[in-house]
């Protein structure tokens, strides 16, 4: 497992010669998680996190991708010192999440999945309140939140509880940033908001990344994985894969086909029985069919055509993150 520092091997030319020499640059990890285990229940019968390990370098936008109940919130609560793990170790900016919890709370911003600001306070009052807690002011750090806050500033006198979902999201992000954190934890920030607000939110995250803030964001939306520098796919408390979005897609090695007919359910049931099919599952208006190899393609086309309708379709497609996630769960 990586330590708090990663060695990055580089090439450089000696000033006194044309020889290329190797040297190492120390690149600090903003977050290090080592063998974290978390269980719930009197008999510890529910495992939320099962031997989780990963690291996040400074300045990276790192995604934790997985469905509800995968363990994302438990992980974020441990890293923000709000929950104790059963075992394992974690550091944030080099500070231990147990021993140095006070230092971490001053350095991180946390936006929980559920809207947790004060609904009876106005937009401006909420922001002033959180600024005061961290011994700062809106004016002192306005440059950091300006691009976000200007979108809700016209409603600064409106009660937070009366804001739309997208506006609540922007206010919560402003409050999480007002003390200029070095690491930002966002727990499913785009859940329950419209598509336009989701797009705007990710544009805001790109802007924050440019300012050097390390961002960890969790989401159940597979399409958001491609917006991260690296992602960890998590299910049932276990990490299935950690890689760049393209790296995860490139690891999908089997032929993938999309099929469609007017009798979709019978077609799916029939495909699942075929010996040349590794897996088949609904995917939007199509079924995606994972082939064991390329030898069964003609048999696949024959099965689709046997449904005797003019709209039958069978075409080879490229996998995306969701296809990879399903394959990893099956394996």
Your description of this structure?
With 331 residues, this protein is an alpha/beta fold. It has two domains: 28-249, P-loop containing nucleotide triphosphate hydrolases (Rossmann fold, 3-Layer(aba) Sandwich), CATH 3.40.50; 254-330, Alpha-Beta Plaits. 29% of the residues lie in helices and 31% in strands. It contains ten helices and 15 strands. The protein has helices spanning 72-79, 101-107, 123-133, 142-149, 165-177, 195-210, 245-250, 264-272, 297-305, 321-330; strands at 5-13, 20-40, 46-57, 61-65, 87-92, 95-96, 108-111, 183-187, 214-219, 230-235, 238-243, 256-260, 277-283, 286-291, 313-316. The strands form three sheets. A six-stranded mixed beta sheet has the order 7-8-9-4-10-11, with helices on both faces. Strands 1, 2, 3, 5 and 6 form a five-stranded antiparallel beta sheet that branches. Strand 13 (277-283) and strand 14 form a beta hairpin. The radius of gyration is 24 Å and the shape is globular.
């Amino acid at each position: 497992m990586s330590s708090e520092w990663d060695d990055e091997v580089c090439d450089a030319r000696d000033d006194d010669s044309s020889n290329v020499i190797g040297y190492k640059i120390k690149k600090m990890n903003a977050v290090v998680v080592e063998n974290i285990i978390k269980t719930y229940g009197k008999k510890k019968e529910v495992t939320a996190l099962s031997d989780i390990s990963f690291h996040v370098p400074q300045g990276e936008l790192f995604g934790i991708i997985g469905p509800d109940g995968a363990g994302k919130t438990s992980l974020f609560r441990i890293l923000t010192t709000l929950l104790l793990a059963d075992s394992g170790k974690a550091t944030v900016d080099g500070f231990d999440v147990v021993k140095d919890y006070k230092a971490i709370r001053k350095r991180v911003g946390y936006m929980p999945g559920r809207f947790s600001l004060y609904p009876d306070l106005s937009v401006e009052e909420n922001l002033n309140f959180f600024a005061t807690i961290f011994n700062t002011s809106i004016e002192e750090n306005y440059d950091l939140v300006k691009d976000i806050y200007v979108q809700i500033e016209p409603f600064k006198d409106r009660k937070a509880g009366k804001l739309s979902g997208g506006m609540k999201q922007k206010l919560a992000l402003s409050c999480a940033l007002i003390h200029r954190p070095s690491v930002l934890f966002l727990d499913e920030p785009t859940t329950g908001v419209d598509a336009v607000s989701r797009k705007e939110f990710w544009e805001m995250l790109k802007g924050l990344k440019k300012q050097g803030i390390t961002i960890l964001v969790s989401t159940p939306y597979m399409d958001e994985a491609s917006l991260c520098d690296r992602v960890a796919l998590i299910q049932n408390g276990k990490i299935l894969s950690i890689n760049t979005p393209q790296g995860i897609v490139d690891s999908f090695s089997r032929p993938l086909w999309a099929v469609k007919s007017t009798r979709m359910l019978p077609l799916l049931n029939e495909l699942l029985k075929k010996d040349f099919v590794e897996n088949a599952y609904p995917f939007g208006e199509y079924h995606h069919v994972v082939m064991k190899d390329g030898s069964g393609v003609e048999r696949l086309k024959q099965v689709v055509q046997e449904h005797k309708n003019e709209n039958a379709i069978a075409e080879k497609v490229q996998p995306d993150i969701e296809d990879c996630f399903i394959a990893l769960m099956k394996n």
